[in-house]
Amino acid sequence: MASTACFIIASRNDSPIYEAEDLAWTTSAMFLKQVDRFNDLVVSVYVTAVHTRFLLLHDSQNDDGIKRFFQEVHELYKKILLNPLYLLGSRITSSHFDTKVGALARKYL
């Protein structure tokens, strides 16, 4: 089944630091599921411990797959943060990161 999705990582200051295409924080949960709708698409959100938000605009109803996608992208993101050459809050331009996110999207979304 084909699906539509746009994935964004936003830094603490709301600057987009990564984009890929193909609520008030009142909960301690990292995966906020569906927080909004845009036309016929759904917005799902994952919040890291340091309040970086991963947003996914999609038409899928697979909450388990979306949650797993967010968890695995979070692991990739942590590896980017560990890179001493990465400037915190700057745009992620790594083709390796892009390839991995694309593979995870195909796997889970």
Shape: globular
Number of helices: 2
Give unreliable regions as ranges.
none
Order of strands across the main sheet: 2-1-5-4-3
Find the structural class using helix and strand composition: alpha+beta
Topology order in helix (H) and strand (E) letters: EEEEEHH
**What is the helical fraction, as a range of percent?**
25-40%
Distance between the termini: 10 Å
| Average predicted local confidence, pLDDT | 81
Q: Give Rg in angstroms.
A: 13 Å
Index terms:
single chain; 109 residues; alpha+beta; five-stranded antiparallel β-sheet; 2 helices; 5 strands
Structure description:
- The protein contains 2 helices and 5 strands.
- It has helices spanning 63-82, 95-108; strands spanning 5-10, 16-20, 31-38, 41-47, 53-58.
- A hairpin with a 5-residue loop joins strand 1 (5-10) and strand 2.
- The longest helix has 20 residues, at 63-82.
- It starts with a strand and ends with a helix.
- The model has no long low-confidence stretch (mean pLDDT 81).
